[in-house]
Amino acid sequence: MKIQDLVAQIKKKQSFLCVGLDTDLDKIPQHLLKEEDPIFEFNKAIIDATQEFCVAYKPNIAFYEVYGLSGWKSLEKTITYLNANYPEQFTIADAKRGDIGNTSTRYAKAFFEELNFDSITIAPYMGKDSVEPFLAFKEKHTILLALTSNTGAFDFQTKIVEEQELYKRVLKTSKAYENAGNLMYVVGATKAEYLKGIREIVPESFLLVPGIGAQGGNLQEVCKYGMTKDIGLLINSSRGIIYASTDTKFAFSAREKAKQLQQQMHLELKQLD
Ligand SMILES: O=c1ccn([C@@H]2O[C@H](COP(=O)(O)O)[C@@H](O)[C@H]2O)c(=O)[nH]1
């Protein structure tokens, strides 16, 4: 998907919400467990119920890999369902990959070609030659971890390296990578106070912002410091939406949660006019 198409969807739906599909058999409604593929049935119901209020879906790959082959099949069915029924939705494989060049190319082919995701999250630690293989894919997007939402982010990401915080070096250095136009960055909603400085380095890049809802990040704070004239934000909520209730009305509850967030986003977008 082209960035312009994502921006057009955001404006049309008045939403920059990404729904996280962190589907866990221990948490989904019990009545679904009798289905042949409970994970896919859950995802399908959540997608159908929430798609009106969001512009992106982000399955976290760990939640599928944990079930081995059957989990991988559920993931494949989910992305195929999304691409067939809601091709306007931006899709993110939250896989946090990155390796030496020829291995990164295999990861990129797996997620961009075989599964046909629009984007993938990548750890920047192995540097330029581990990231550029992902950037080589046209109209696919590489979402580099910059400043993550967890407390462990302070172990390395905020440490000073050659007079600047490591996450700032990640932002600055990656801007010079080949096909850097295909880069986006992860910045946790719990780190909203850092967004002003981040926008000084990457004024226009899209940021994937996880951490509202269950992790306590604040939507208004993120928008205040992170929003650009082209919005530039995809705000993710996973557990806060998909487990809004775990009874037979789970999809309706998820829809209501997504709608609430979309309404808040609409108010934020009005301030751009
Ligand atoms: O810094 C990061 C990077 C990724 N994540 C992922 O986003 C979702 C958040 O889920 P919630 O239930 O809304 O807390 C999850 O898949 C994380 O692995 C993140 O939280 N922070």
Describe this structure in words.
It holds the Pfam family OMPdecase. Keywords: Decarboxylase, Lyase, Pyrimidine biosynthesis. Belongs to the OMP decarboxylase family. Type 2 subfamily. The protein has an eight-stranded parallel barrel with strand order 1-2-3-4-5-8-9-10, surrounded by seven helices. The protein has a two-stranded antiparallel sheet with strand order 6-7. The relative contact order is 0.15. It is an alpha/beta fold and 273 residues long. Strand 8, helix 9 (195-201) and strand 9 form a beta-alpha-beta unit. The chain has twelve helices and ten strands. It has one domain: TIM Barrel (Alpha-Beta Barrel). The radius of gyration is 18 Å and the shape is globular. The structure holds the ligand O=c1ccn([C@@H]2O[C@H](COP(=O)(O)O)[C@@H](O)[C@H]2O)c(=O)[nH]1. Ligand LLZGTKA7 is lined by residues 20, 22, 60, 94, 148-149, 186, 188, 210-211, 213-215, 236-240.
Could you give the topology of this structure?
Layout: H1 3-13, E1 17-21, H2 38-50, E2 56-59, H3 62-65, H4 68-85, E3 90-97, H5 101-114, E4 119-122, H6 128-135, E5 141-147, H7 153-156, E6 160-161, E7 164-165, H8 166-174, E8 183-187, H9 195-201, E9 207-210, H10 219-226, E10 233-237, H11 239-242, H12 250-270
Parallel strand pairs: 1-2, 1-10, 2-3, 3-4, 4-5, 5-8, 8-9, 9-10
Antiparallel strand pairs: 6-7
Helix pairs in contact: 2-4, 2-12, 5-6
This protein binds the ligand O=c1ccn([C@@H]2O[C@H](COP(=O)(O)O)[C@@H](O)[C@H]2O)c(=O)[nH]1.
Ligand LLZGTKA7 binds near residues 60, 148, 149 and 238.
